[in-house]
Each structure stands twice: as structure tokens, then as C-alpha cells.
Amino acid sequence: MTEIDINNDEEVLKIGCDALITALGVGGFIKFTRLFYGGKGDYTKEKYERPEMSWEEIMDELEKIRLERENGKTINGA
What are the residue ranges spanned by the domains of the chain? Predict the structure, then answer.
């Protein structure tokens, strides 16, 4: 078995997804992710509470995320 760098989130995610697909098949993997990552909150209510973003604001947010990833940061600061 290959040694896994558990401090590398991308590596852990890839290997974990590969293991689930091997064990469950693609359909089982999709079902698992739906069950495991069911979400939280009330999307219908929350979508109206969030202000509309302009195209420029969306692109700025994406650029910010890209730069954080390049600098080794994760989205939630871990």
C-alpha cells in the first residue's frame, strides 16, 4: 500500500474517493456522497437572503480562492 500524506487534503480526498468507487462502484459512490454530504440549512429561504452578486464580484471571489489554493490555504482556513 502507498503511504498517504494525511496533511495533503487533495491527496486524501482523491484516494478516499478512489477507494469508495472501488468498493461501491460509481453509482454507490454517488449515493454515498448524497447521503454523507446532505447539506444543511434551508436553501429556499437562504437564497433570497443573499444579495445578488455581479459578474465582477463572482470573478473576484474565484480569483481569491485560486490565490489561496496556490498559497497552500484551504477555503475554510485549515
Answer: 9-70
